[in-house]
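Retry 2 of 3 after timeout on previous attempt. Resubmitting structure tokens to design endpoint.
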């Protein structure tokens, strides 16, 4: 988990270092964020005790997990508006989520995980499945489909809480990092849904107003110095 969040954390530090301000965090708006929060909440409850040991969770949990993946994908696509600074980052995130969802669906609601990669991270790996509780991964075997899209990339063991990642996870991580960077470094003139004014336009308008004020003052001075006879 730490490895997935690290690029986003570094992106935030870089953006804040360049801007030297944290005010732009307040301007980040995610449409349908309630749906993303709900999806993460369902996953948190589903894969932790005591819910993960319930027979109904073991039976239907994998497809509930697929539904949460689809919900997150919809949130990302909703926020990836063309011609916005988030378009490319959202496409990368959507690609990562899409690849993960594809391999999960292809394997009956489970993410296939390489035993060799798991052994590199945790020192040992078991091919035995625990059917008494819900899990989101299964060891790769001869029946696994699209195994190369599964969890096959071991994180370095020096990271806190290392894990085994998929290609989709990597795309998702860097897509989120680029989204944060684009959000914090975007032009202030483009902030907001309908904001299309630029600083140059504001300067021109200020100059015009100032010039009109000077002209009016000059006319008043001429009127006072040349009274009608």
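Retry 2 succeeded. Sequence:
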């Amino acid at each position: 988990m730490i490895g997935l969040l690290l690029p986003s954390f570094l992106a935030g530090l870089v953006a804040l270092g360049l801007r030297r301000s944290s005010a732009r965090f307040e301007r980040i708006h995610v449409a349908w964020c309630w749906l993303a929060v709900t999806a993460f909440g369902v996953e948190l409850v589903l894969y932790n005790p005591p819910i993960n040991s319930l027979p109904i969770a073991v039976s239907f949990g994998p497809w509930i997990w697929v539904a949460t993946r689809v919900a997150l994908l919809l949130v990302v696509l909703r926020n990836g508006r063309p011609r916005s600074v988030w378009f490319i980052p959202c496409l990368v995130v959507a690609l990562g989520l899409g690849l993960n969802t594809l391999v999960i669906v292809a394997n009956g609601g489970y993410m296939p995980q390489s035993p060799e990669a798991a052994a590199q991270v945790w020192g040992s790996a078991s091919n035995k499945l625990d059917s008494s509780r819900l899990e989101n991964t299964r060891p790769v075997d001869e029946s696994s489909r699209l195994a190369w899209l599964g969890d096959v990339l071991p994180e370095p063991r020096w990271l806190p809480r290392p894990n085994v990642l998929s290609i989709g996870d990597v795309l998702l991580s860097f897509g989120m990092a680029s989204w944060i960077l684009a959000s914090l470094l975007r032009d202030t003139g483009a902030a907001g849904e309908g904001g299309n004014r630029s600083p140059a336009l504001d300067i021109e308008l200020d100059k015009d107003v100032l010039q009109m004020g000077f002209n009016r003052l000059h006319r008043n001075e001429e009127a006072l110095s040349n009274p009608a006879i």
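Attempt log closed. The mean pLDDT is 80.
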